[in-house]
Design a protein that fits this description.
The complex is a heterodimer of chains A (321) and B (315). Chain A is an alpha/beta fold and 321 residues long. Chain A is built from ten helices and twelve strands. In chain A, the strands form two sheets. Chain A has an eight-stranded mixed beta sheet with strand order 6-7-8-3-9-10-12-11, sandwiched between helices. Chain A has a four-stranded antiparallel beta sheet with strand order 2-1-4-5, covered by helices on one side. The longest helix of chain A is centred in the middle third of the chain and has 18 residues. Chain B has two domains: 227 residues, Rossmann fold, CATH 3.40.50.300; 73 residues, no CATH class. Chain B is of the alpha/beta class and 315 residues long. Chain B starts with a strand and ends in a 5-residue tail after the last strand. An eight-stranded mixed beta sheet of chain B has the order 6-7-8-3-9-10-12-11, with helices on both faces. Chain B is globular, with a radius of gyration of 21 Å. Classes of the chains: A alpha/beta (321), B alpha/beta (315). The interface between A and B is large, with 44 and 39 residues.
């Protein structure tokens, strides 16, 4: 899939964790690309490899135990896996930045929020302390926090406000790519709505590309243009929002939709996906979803299905499409 | 006339803090009929879990009455209460911290039976434990497993089996599926519904997830800062919400569909502190319809439609 404006291209990325219990194959043969200005939703359950993938992009995986076995990650045409530690440091926060799930633990408790944002700005730009602090205040205003609260410590802010600070910090250097790892999971629904609204506005304003990691298909429907569904370290289905929501083909994607309670439906019966996620140290040989799949046939047991393009830009990894 | 299994009247629970009294639950009234599910919904800190604990007397209420099968259980002493504890159980939110990590699945499920001296010999205990494992969908091969060997969904099934051990009639389900992945969440929700049908259980279902609440409830009580702001049957709450907070809450839920029109009401600001709350409606500071009367006096829960109660001056 050659695309104009290619921002990120991941080829055959494979990441293992070497543990005492064996090798955990967290991500296997993952291919993904995205263009400038896109919002990509990375959806999957716990242990699907979503966070490992993006931490791989950021080169934030602890080695040991994590090991990038093979693959290439091209960002703006350059292979991130070939970069030195120093080069990576100048990319992180400046070109690619990340928002973590839990705002309570991703801020430094002994530093004021203004100083924390200013620190990021100063690291990547040659400006004075005073200037950077002023810019930090402007950033806070952008995310809907009054500038005078820049002198507050994280414990003085509510959960929603802390997440706003984290977002302000991530966007402070105007990155090309923003990775948001479950940015609103820890927040209450009304606060989540506030934060999502604000994020959408800023993303449009800064023209930032975003990878949004989430397990909530509602949030995906609201914020993303493209969606990749992950299961056991692989992308099993990829397409535009329309492809996935209106024409899902992979049995896992269909299963996900069938098991979420829908607030708009009159009366819905939940159809759970039977069984559990496979043990990552002992993945099935063929299709990873085979043991839980209602359509599984002979070939599924032994042969890992290829990624097939069933319509323009809609890829499915299943023998039966 | 359906039987009221649990009825709560003017229930209050205040916690003493350095800054003053924290009004966790403030003058709450509701009743649950036998075999039905009442859901308490609201955001963190609104007092829903506190209610769950207070009605089981895991926390002592500050004031109010709790009637269970017609008896005010707040008047009972410890020994009398023990008899009632058999009939009222709880399943906690986090299956990772609510099980004893040093007890095997078998021991955890047998514990309530042993405490209440349900049987006289080991064989009877074993029979009941395996029976419970079957009911809650746990394979018998896990009997000797320890919690760390199980995934979240199975752990929650252990929690459910434990709660069912003494044949309770009433179970408080405190966010029983919030810590689980969606595919597992659906399995556990279906199990809970099936158990309710089979055993005629009554649930007090505590959750912040409105989609789940809609799926499982007969009645819904929406809470805000220690008060019930709206109480009605499930259908009325979702189709015809009256309280401005309920409306905002419902509109904030992300919908897993595309091409739906969202009429989202974005609430400004955060939930205020429950410590020494100001007089007037608790929601006044964030409400679009707020008028002077809202800031002066407390609205009371009044019936706007048959069985539909709302506490708002502007309904």
């Amino acid at each position: 899939m050659e695309q104009k404006n290619l921002l990120l291209k991941i080829k055959d990325l494979t990441i293992n964790y070497n543990t005492y219990d064996g090798i955990v194959k967290a991500v296997e043969g993952l291919n993904l690309s995205m263009s400038n200005g896109q919002t990509l939703g990375l959806v999957g359950e716990t242990g699907a490899g979503k966070t490992t993938t993006v931490k791989g992009i950021m080169r934030l995986l602890p080695d040991p135990p994590a090991k990038i076995v093979r693959g290439e990650i091209y960002f703006d045409g350059e292979n991130l896996l070939k970069k030195s530690k120093k080069e990576m440091r100048s990319i992180r926060g400046k070109q690619i930045s990340m928002i973590f799930q839990d705002p309570m633990t991703s801020l430094n408790p002994v530093m004021t929020v203004g100083d924390q944002i200013a620190e990021t700005i100063r690291l990547h730009n040659d400006i004075s302390k005073k200037q950077s602090f002023e810019e930090a205040c402007t950033m806070l205003e952008q995310v809907g926090i009054k500038g005078e609260r820049a002198g507050d410590y994280p414990h003085q802010l509510s959960g929603g406000m802390k997440q706003r600070v984290v977002i302000a910090m991530a966007l402070a250097c105007n990155p090309k790519l923003l990775i948001a790892d479950e940015p609103t999971t820890a927040l209450d629904v009304t606060i989540q709505a506030q934060v999502l609204e604000m994020m959408k506005k800023l993303i449009a304003q800064y023209n930032t590309s975003v990878i949004m990691i989430t397990h909530d298909l509602g949030i995906v429907a609201e914020t993303c243009d493209y969606i990749a569904i992950m299961y056991a370290g692989e992308i099993v289905e990829y397409g535009t929002k329309q492809h996935i929501f209106l024409n899902a083909k992979h049995p896992y994607t269909k299963g996900l939709f069938a098991c979420i309670p829908d607030i708009t439906a009159e009366d819905n019966k939940l159809t759970p996906i039977e069984g559990l996620m496979p043990d990552p140290t002992n993945l099935p040989k063929g299709c990873k979803f085979y043991p839980r799949c209602p359509m599984a046939g002979k070939e599924c047991e032994n042969e890992n299905p290829a990624n097939k393009e069933i319509e323009n830009g809609h890829f499915v990894k299943c023998h039966f499409v | 006339m359906p039987e009221k299994l649990l009825e709560v009247k003017n229930l209050k629970k205040y916690f003493k803090t350095k800054q003053g009294y924290l009004h966790a639950v403030d003058d709450v009234n509701f009743a649950i009929n036998r075999g039905k599910t009442l859901s308490l919904v609201g955001e963190s800190g609104c007092g829903k879990s506190t209610i769950g604990r207070v009605v089981l007397r895991l926390l002592e209420a500050t004031a109010g009455e709790i009637y269970f099968e017609g008896a005010n259980i707040r008047d009972l002493d410890k020994m009398q209460m023990r008899k009632y504890r058999k009939k009222m159980q709880i399943v906690f939110q986090d299956p990772y911290s609510s099980l004893d990590s040093r007890k095997s699945v078998y021991e955890s499920i047998a514990e309530p039976l042993v405490v209440q001296k349900a049987f006289t010999n080991k064989k009877q205990y074993a029979k009941r434990v395996y029976e419970l494992m079957d009911t809650s969908g746990l394979a018998q091969r896990f009997a000797n497993a320890y919690p760390h060997e199980l995934d979240g969904g199975r752990r929650q099934r252990v929690g459910i089996a434990r709660a069912l051990a003494l044949n309770p009639s009433f179970i408080v389900l405190d966010e029983p599926v919030s810590a689980l992945d969606v595919s597992i969440q659906a399995q556990v929700l279906n199990l809970l519904q099936q158990l309710q049908d089979d055993l005629n259980l009554t649930y007090l279902f505590i959750s912040h997830d409105l989609s789940v609440v809609k799926h499982i409830s007969d009645m819904v009580a929406v809470m805000y800062l220690g008060k019930i702001v709206e109480l009605a049957n499930c259908k009325s709450i979702f189709q015809n919400p009256v309280h401005p907070y309920t409306k905002a809450l419902l509109s904030a839920v992300p919908i897993p569909k595309i091409n739906v029109k969202l009429n989202r009401i974005i609430l400004e600001g955060d939930v205020p502190s429950p410590i020494n709350p100001k007089p007037g409606c608790r929601f006044a500071g964030r409400c679009r319809l707020c008028s002077s009367v809202c800031k002066e006096s407390d609205p009371v829960l009044t019936e706007v439609d048959r069985g539909h109660f709302v506490s708002c001056f502007n309904k």
